RNA sequence: GGCGGGUUGGCGGAGAGGUUACGCAGCGGAUUGCAAAUCCGUGAAGACCGGUUCGAUUCCGGUACCCGCCUCCA
């Protein structure tokens, strides 16, 4: 079997992946803050981790991989959304959570084994903060509890920066109650109108980073295998998680491999809320891009590289999937091909895996093509409706066949050509062979432009 | 300012110190009433300047440009 190799942000090298316990491989992905629709950047790490999850299940067995992805349902963005809309927080988080599950499912992602919600782990967070205070890594000040970055020698290791350098950058908020400008909030007081929980430090709510530390510990223990997210989470979010977890549980190693995916670009720029150039997964689905097609576009680019979303890529992806679905229709999937597993095992080289799939398609091994594609979450039965969808154009096919039969005798093909070009203009695919005539909806098909029969 | 990533053929996009990546598009052919689809074949590359080497697009150094993080963001 090919050894799995992964790029570990912690060491900045591609390393052999060796799980702590092959019968219980544990991976954790930072999930969404549920206050709005997931944008297309949010989908990238989900798809990356979904492929990783499928590959690990292939290697270690389905029952031996545990995948957790949290929902952050306590956050000031949610509070702000509630205040501006007048809707209860619980209603917003419940609705957004379901949107997220629907949208990620539409892209062909499996659901993780665990999907913890932050508000269900407030007790664990408080306990962890208490442990940090008692161990001398955190302190209370003006109702806040802050992590003391100077107390953790390893602070900055994950993101490759030093506390002194960052302070030199002088772009941190310097609250008067902080011992060091880089200290970050573990707990903060809540005004009466904001969500809050009773704690040893008064009524308040957790800070930005503590939830992932508390939830991963509750589900996976002091040490687990892989933790991931977008590269923009490397600092400060993941750096702070490391600090909290390693100081609260020094007997463990927290995450041993860190996987970070590069950003998704639109027109060569990072998609971001502040730039206003982002759109949601639902926007793409509503524009008529099939979930499977969107997924294929993501897989075309290696996860460690910036990826550009373009309509051209989507068209190319659709063409490939259309072809493969045609080749594999009715074929029973066998086992994934060794070359596809090898490509994925090489730091999730999805582009290489797709190339291997082309090889299987060209060599006629459709059973392996189908099985291998499923390792990438492609060519699954439930993802193929986009091809079947649309109008039944067999009446046009019959009419065209009849006209052609007449034309064969009369040698006058003008009526055949007229109907054919009208169908093509409406975006239909027309195939006339000796065996018969086929008319199907093609790319850009518009039923309203069909000619009358 | 500090730290990190990138620059491959018309486009997208990988691997490998020496032997075709792959896909899309293009071109030639087969097929077709004409097309489409399909099949066969085919040209085209690695920002710039140095270094190491028998040999570098691949390793090392520098230059230019692009992008990201350092502030809510995946």
Automatic annotation (TrEMBL):
Task: Please give the superkingdom of this protein's source.
Answer: Bacteria
> Which SUPFAM superfamilies would you find in this protein's record?
Anticodon-binding domain of a subclass of class I aminoacyl-tRNA synthetases, Nucleotidylyl transferase
Compartments where found: Cytoplasm
Q: What is its main location?
A: cytoplasm
Write down the InterPro entries for this protein, in alphabetical order. Answer: Cys-tRNA-ligase, Cys-tRNA-synt_Ia_DALR, Cys-tRNA/MSH_ligase, Rossmann-like_a/b/a_fold, tRNA-synt_1_cat_dom, tRNAsynth_Ia_anticodon-bd
- The EC number(s) attached to this protein equal 6.1.1.16
How many and how are cofactors bound here? Binds 1 zinc ion per subunit.
**According to its record, what are the GO cellular component terms?**
cytosol
Enzyme class, broadest EC rank: ligase
Extent of motif 'KMSKS' region: 270-274
GO BP terms: namely: cysteinyl-tRNA aminoacylation
Provide the reaction this enzyme catalyses.
Answer: tRNA(Cys) + L-cysteine + ATP = L-cysteinyl-tRNA(Cys) + AMP + diphosphate
Query: Which Gene3D superfamilies would you find in this protein's record?
Result: Cysteine-tRNA ligase, C-terminal anti-codon recognition domain, HUPs
Residue limits of the Cysteinyl-tRNA synthetase class Ia DALR domain? Answer: 339-387
Q: What cofactor is needed?
A: Zn(2+)
How is the quaternary structure described?
Monomer.
Question: What name is this protein filed under?
Answer: Cysteine--tRNA ligase
Q: Which organism is it from?
A: Falsigemmobacter intermedius
């Amino acid at each position: 079997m090919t050894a799995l190799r992964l790029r570990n942000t912690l060491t900045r090298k591609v390393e052999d992946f060796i799980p702590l316990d092959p019968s219980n491989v544990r991976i954790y992905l930072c999930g969404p803050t549920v206050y709005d629709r997931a944008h297309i950047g949010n989908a990238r790490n989900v798809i990356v981790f979904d492929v990783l999850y499928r590959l690990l299940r292939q290697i270690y067995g389905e029952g031996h991989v545990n995948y957790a992805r949290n929902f952050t349902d306590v956050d000031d963005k949610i509070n702000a959304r509630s205040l501006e809309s007048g809707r209860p927080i619980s209603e917003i988080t419940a609705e957004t959570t379901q949107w997220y599950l629907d949208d990620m499912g539409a892209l062909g992602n499996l659901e993780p084994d665990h999907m913890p919600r932050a508000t269900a782990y407030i007790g664990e967070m408080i306990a962890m903060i208490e442990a940090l205070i008692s161990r001398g890594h955190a302190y209370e000040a003006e109702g806040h509890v802050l992590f003391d970055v100077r107390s953790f020698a390893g602070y900055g290791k994950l993101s490759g920066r030093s506390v002194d350098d960052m302070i030199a950058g002088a772009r941190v908020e310097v609250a008067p109650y902080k011992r060091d400008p880089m200290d970050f909030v573990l707990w903060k007081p809540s005004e009466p109108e904001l969500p809050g929980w009773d704690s040893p430090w008064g009524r308040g709510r957790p800070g930005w980073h503590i939830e992932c530390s508390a939830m991963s510990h509750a589900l996976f223990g002091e040490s687990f295998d892989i933790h991931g997210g977008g590269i923009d989470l490397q600092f400060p979010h993941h750096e702070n998680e490391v600090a909290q977890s390693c100081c609260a549980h020094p007997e463990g190693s927290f995450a041993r491999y860190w996987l970070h995916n590069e950003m998704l670009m639109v027109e060569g720029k990072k998609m971001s809320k502040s730039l206003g150039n982002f759109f949601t997964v639902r926007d793409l689905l509503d524009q008529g891009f099939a979930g499977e097609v969107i997924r294929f576009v993501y897989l075309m680019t290696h996860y460690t590289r910036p990826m550009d979303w373009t309509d051209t890529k989507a068209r190319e992806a659709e063409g490939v999937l259309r072809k493969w679905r045609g080749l594999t229709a009715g074929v029973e999937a066998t086992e994934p091909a060794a070359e596809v597993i090898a490509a994925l095992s090489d730091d999730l080289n999805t582009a290489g895996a797709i190339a291997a799939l082309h090889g299987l398609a060209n060599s006629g091994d459709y059973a392996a093509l189908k099985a291998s594609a499923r390792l990438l979450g492609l060519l699954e039965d439930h993802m193929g409706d986009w091809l079947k969808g649309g109008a039944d154009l067999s009446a046009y096919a019959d009419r065209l066949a009849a006209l052609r039969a007449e034309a064969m005798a009369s040698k006058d093909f003008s009526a055949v050509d007229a109907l054919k070009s009208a169908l093509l203009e409406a975006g239909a695919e027309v195939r006339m062979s000796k065996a018969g005539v086929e008319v199907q909806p093609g790319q850009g098909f518009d039923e309203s432009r069909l000619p009358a029969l």
